[in-house]
User: Fold this.
Amino acid sequence: MATRPRRSVQSTDLRDQPAYTLAEAARYLKLPAATLRSWVAGRPYPKAEGVGRFQPLIHPPSPQPPILTFWNLIFPVAAVVELTVDSTTIVLP
Assistant:
């Protein structure tokens, strides 16, 4: 009797695969591309003692060019979610 080949224990999860450019992700998330780029690449900002650096919040598996995974898209979605309570909209940071 023939047996089926075993699947690898580490099967590929498509949600972990780089698939979205910054432009695509920004369009899907309805975010300014510059905001998403800052979240992925970080950005400098002025300080009294020179220049500080805002560290990236999202770490794509492919840094150059940054190609995001499905999981990378979840963070911005959670960051811009809106809650409606008693007809009052509260925007979470």
